[in-house]
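To close the chapter, one final illustration. This time we ask the reader to focus less on the individual chains and more on the assembly as a whole: which components sit near each other, and how the overall shape emerges from the parts.
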Amino acid sequence: MHGDRRGPAKPESPVPATLKYNPHRWGAAELRGIFVVRLKELDLLSRRLRETGPGTTPQHVLIVGPRGMGKSTLLLRLALAVDDDAELSRHWLPLTLPEEQYTVSTLAEFWTNVLDSLADKLETQGASAATLATLDDGIRRLGGLPIAEREDAALTLLTGWIRQDGRRLLLLVDSNDLLFSALGGSGASETKTPTRSDPGSGPLWRLRRTLTHETGLFWIGASYQALEAQNSYHHAFQDFFEYRELPPLTVADMERTLLALARTFGLGPDLAGDRAEAEMAAILKIRPGRLKALRTLTGGNPRTTMALFDLFATRRQQDLQTDLLALLDTMTPLYKARMESLAEQPRKLLAHLMEHWAPMGSGDLAAVSGIPTNTISPQLRRLIEDGLVEKAALPGTKRTGYQVSERLFNIWYLMRFASRRLRQRLVWLVEFMRLWFSTDEWSELAVAHDDDDELKPLAIQAHLNREDRELARHALAGLAARAAAGEAEAFFQLRSQCRECHRLGLGHDLAAIMENSAYAGFLLPFALALHVAATGDRSLMLGVPAEALDLAEEVLKVLEPIPQPAS
Amino acid sequence: MKVGGKADGDAFFNRTRERTALWRILENDHITISGPRRLGKTSLLQKLADEAEDKGWIAALVDVEGLGTPKAFFEALDRHFPDVTLSATLQRGGEAIRRRLTGLQKVSFQLPGGLGGAGLEFQDTKEQSWIQDARTLQHRLAPQPLLILVDELSVFLETLLTQAPAEAPGFLAFLRAWRQQSDVNCRFVFCGSIGLNALLERHRLGTLFNDCYDFRLDPFLPADATAMLTELLRRERWTADPACLAHLCHRIGWLSPFYLNLLLMDAMTVAEERVSETRAPERILIPSDIDDAYDRLLLTRSRFIHWVDRLKRDLDVPSCDFAMATLNAIAKSGDGLTKRTLLARLQKRESDPDRRAERLETILLKLEEDGYIDSQGEKIQFLSFLLRDYWKKNHAR
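The assembled structure is written out below.
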């Protein structure tokens, strides 16, 4: 498998590309139709609105999660939920403030943007020309005021409208951290240690003051991170928001999403609605392991689940490697644009993190990139703010490491740009996934092995028991080579041997020879799981790619706890 | 349930004893409400504002965070007590306000020539151009039965001391003179989220602010905490037995409403997941939900990193190192250290015993005011057990 190989030509997707990655382009019916996960979060936020009585200040909320986790979609769906509900819409007017508020650098500009959004919303609701004219006139007059007066005047205009109309404003603020960073002044966010003289602290404290006391504004923001350190704005909003983190989708969530997409967009010109959903259900049922494996590759990211829809919609039963290539092809325009939008140094740092494919400390990153440590830190902060990098634990140290936050993005890079050796590791991992999740093949093999003792090979555990490591290594090498090439029988035997060795207390020994094998990359999930199962020390899982971690967790589920001797 | 926002309406719980005491004190004194962060000082100010008219006062909560000059400060006061509103309120005022107005003596208003013993001359220079407007405001407001609730004064002062430190003594002296004016009828209540006393001491301005009654706000009593938790659970359609709530309080340690709510909210999230997975029939919170939620909170690094950052921001490097060593020693101890033991543990940081004791006193004041520790009891310990456990895990070696 080569980095420049492309997947099969794909048929036209039922979901136009412009819609796939732009929830803002979905119509109301489409949004209602495909919003089938995150229902708990939607219900919670709706309840918050209902429970915030008039004249009381809301508990403002920050939705937190990496790119593609569905933050923007949740905000949009909440706006729709308010508009759809007679009781909620009597008390609340949702204003969606777009993700890219590039022009905002002052509070005056922000409040003016809110006023513009208010005018737009009122217009869509059919407000009278007189009402709109009054508001537009007020907004226009702001521009004629001295700059120092605009902020208070804009806020006064806004709160005046709230008092007069009786409805309160639900501010749905996408890219909250970028907005706060801009309001705080870009210089402030570059400092390593926040100082009291941070020039941007004033606007943020004033915003905090407004949100603390103004009963007519409910702020629900979306952020890549929970206002992490090294940014001056976190002092103003320290312990201010209720954080709601969006977790990765489970396999069941992904299945529900795919069914909803089929129902909403159809599976072709002649297959729509319930029939399309039934067809998708049938496709998913053919190889249930396929979705589980893809979930491990995509990390349960909703945006990439949208891309998976194309794979399943083609109805072709492809192997996982081909699936992966097709998926990466679909994501290429987005990922390519992302890389190209970065300046040279952050792009270089991101590329090194991707090549490392595991958490990495800033010192190691400096060494491999040739960029000085004091330059790396602000660049990493910016990459974290942009949601491309996240912090992660490093093994054996309390220092913080960094890794790429979106798994599939990392895999995309490896498949396109990494060395042959590194790509081989990835190919092996994908093959491991395919074999592990091919549950329909297990039952056949299990039955066959139970029936016929002669099928059982010379066991690795027998060699290890006799402390004949050389023979054990040889036996392992043969099995691993066959399993890495895709042979289910060999993989099944490896799995059985792991369980047996663990049961006999030989897990460590087997893991050691696995780690020294030429197929160590393929055997990594087995080795990790054996070590952790033997010691109970989960810190051994630190410092490895997230995909390998997930697979090791799967292996751990089949390794029974070793009974402890009675004391 | 509030986890950081101001608690008003039915989100406000308890503090009955405190409010009774504050109203009594206000008859004769101005007040500074002190205490570590996250105790609900802003919420308490709001409650006082809500109750003020029944007590015979016209109140406004003036939040001065984000302001950075004396001019802006007094403009904010002016905006919150507009003449037209005051006149209307006094005219239509209820029984309590009428009673208070009857009791007020006619004020022979005299502006101070000097300032509160601080030895500063009060001159209307170009550098202090806010003074004339402030005097006019003082003239207008001082005779009225006003309750001026100033929130985040310490944040304001911190900004002022950074951006225009020369103005700070004059500003504080003016306010002091206002408060000490004979027969002044209005009352000030100040509070802030960062330690006011430590800030003033650091800048040698303590004598300009030592005339207010220092009302120290304490954490909830166990019975009050339990009552709040029970009601919050009821609203969310959960129940918990008293032992479970006691366990929650025990894990939190210092019963601040913020930390109580934070752990409760996360515990309900954990319980929701458990009930969903196990299909348990009843929504009952159990101790393991609390323990799991506590562990999850400890992993949320962003909740705690600012505690470290604040030390780096506020202190020079040697003092910061000393503060970190102090906190590390206390965190490792579990249930706190006596001052004597702590001094012994810090010997490597400062070998001279007198100097070490002096440095420790300074740091303890800072750490206590900023909500890290409690040093009132026999042992010095972290206020928040969450912070203690985070510190132990990530900093104490």
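The longest helix of chain A spans residues 320-340. Chain A has three domains: 38-245, 342-414, 420-558. With these observations in hand, you are ready for the problems at the end of the chapter.
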